[in-house]
Design a protein that fits this description.
Layout (H helix, E strand, L loop, with lengths): L4 H14 L4 H22 L1 H9 L21 H7 L15 E5 L7 E5 L1 H17 L8 E5 L14 E5 L4 H11 L3 E5 H10 L2 H6 L4 E5 L5 H11 L3 E7 L3 E6 L5 E3 L4 E6 L11 E8 L10 E8 L15 E2 L1 E3 L6 E2 L5 E2 L1 H14 L4 E10 L2 E8 L5 H15 L4 E6 L14 E3 L9
This protein binds zinc ion.
The site of zinc ion (ZN) has 7 residues, from loops.
Length: about 425
């Protein structure tokens, strides 16, 4: 799967231009796009053909945004059951797609695919997250992620450093200090660990212009703490593995919804749109992934529309989200009371799930006491005990102090009756800290 630089360049120009459209023009575009997405899904995708028919939906008569509430929801369980053959558009070969998977934060793997064209668009919207925060072409960027993103090689023009998320914080900081990035991108809880570690002398040597945190919920207080420690602004974004970018903060601090990528509904417990300013469940419909669209997908996060929608000072016409909530795993508590980011453990599972599809269907990691933990694991169809042992060893390396980890194979994991249960849970209480 090769990414054509021309396609990427075109997507970059288009996504930056479209963000400046008026709200009315954005909405008209979404309306037309949605009609095409729904019609094509009914025509070309076995799952949606049956799913719509089962719920009495005539895709040919679907009129767009005003009819969206008539469509049935798509659940994670349906994606897990129906992927790949019944969820891919007719005639699409999986080998021509970008294949991906998420551990979500529920510990259950969800697999999906998208086309190289969609990937170019996703990369362009990712870039827009950072241009909205003030990225310049000559900035040196560093990002913290479980594995490197296959970016096109831009050579010396725009150097990029990948820092593996599961490395110890000291080693991550050492790599950042020697690369000296202008922009740092990564998981909120991992950058929070680095913020606790960084010294004023380190900061003077780091030419950081801004930090962008992603992938998990961070509070305004945590972002303010990171900003104070690193001495630069911190911006937040909201994305999901399945849909990529959903919203991100501009320099005026507003979360702009990326409605040129995904339409966001905020719904109450009866499936009705919430009143402005009220919290509700986020339901996503992708507009750019014809190979495998997600239509009214219950991602399991919660959000709030602004009480009053005003045009943002930055001039972008993309609508706004007041805040979002979700992703609330526990930190692992080390012997001295330090909190280890749950993302380090979650990403260790992710690396195994991505490299060995079929290894794990579902898991939960529970810290039962200081230095003790249990993995509850529902084996996948190609489970291999040797890989299970390797997983325990990898987690032990990430924790980097004595820990006894029991791996227990179970038939199912029952959690509280809520949409997202924790994948990483700690039953040890840690001393409270400022951030
Ligand atoms: Zn703005």
């Amino acid at each position: 799967m090769a990414l054509a630089p021309a396609a990427l360049l075109r997507a970059i120009v288009d996504t930056h231009r479209q963000a400046r459209w008026s709200p009315e023009r954005q909405r008209a575009w979404v309306d037309a796009r949605l009609r095409a997405v729904v019609r094509d899904a009914a025509d070309q995708i076995a799952f949606y053909r049956d799913h719509f028919a089962d719920h009495g939906v005539d895709a040919q008569a679907f009129r767009g945004l005003d009819d969206l509430h008539r469509l049935p929801f798509l659940t994670k369980a349906e994606v897990q059951d129906q992927y790949p053959h019944r969820l891919l558009a007719d005639g699409v070969e999986l080998t021509q797609c970008v294949q991906s998977a998420t551990t979500g934060s529920t510990g259950k793997a969800t697999r999906f695919a998208f086309s190289p064209e969609t990937f170019a668009f996703y990369l362009a919207t990712s870039l827009r997250v950072y241009t909205m925060a003030g990225l310049r072409p000559w900035y040196r960027g560093a990002y913290i992620k479980y594995s490197p993103i296959p970016l096109p090689d831009l050579g010396r023009f725009s150097p990029v450093l990948h820092v593996p998320s599961i490395l110890p914080a000291q080693e991550q900081l050492r790599r950042l200090m020697s690369f000296r990035p202008n922009v740092l991108i990564g998981y909120a809880s991992i950058i929070l660990e680095l913020a606790r570690l960084v010294t004023p002398a380190d900061c003077r040597r780091l030419p950081l212009k801004f930090i962008s945190v992603n992938s998990e919920l961070s509070t305004p207080a945590e972002r303010a703490y990171i900003a104070e420690r690193f001495g630069c602004p911190v911006y937040d974004e909201y994305s999901t593995e399945e849909t990529w970018m959903v919203a991100s903060q501009c320099r005026a601090g507003s979360y702009h919804l990326f409605t040129d990528n995904v339409w966001v509904e905020v719904l109450d417990e009866h499936g009705q749109p919430t009143a402005p300013g009220e919290i509700g469940e986020i339901v996503l419909t992708t507009l750019r992934s014809p190979v495998m669209p997600f239509i009214r997908y219950r991602i399991g996060d919660f959000g709030r529309r602004p009480a009053v929608e005003t045009r943002c000072a930055c001039g972008r016409g993309l609508p706004q989200l007041e805040s979002f909530e979700g992703r609330c795993d526990d930190a692992y508590i080390l012997q001295d009371g330090t909190r280890l980011s749950p993302l380090k453990l979650l990403n260790t599972f992710t690396l195994f799930i991505k490299s060995d599809p079929g290894l794990i269907d579902e898991f939960r990691f529970v810290q039962t006491a200081l230095g003790q933990a249990r993995i509850e694991l529902v084996p996948g169809p190609r489970y291999d005990p040797a890989r299970g042992t390797a997983l325990v060893e990898a987690l032990t390396r990430v924790i980097a102090e004595p820990v006894a980890i029991d791996l227990v194979r179970v038939g199912a994991i029952d959690g509280p009756a809520r949409i997202k249960r924790k994948a990483i849970e700690s039953r040890v209480s840690a001393p409270q800290r400022a951030a």
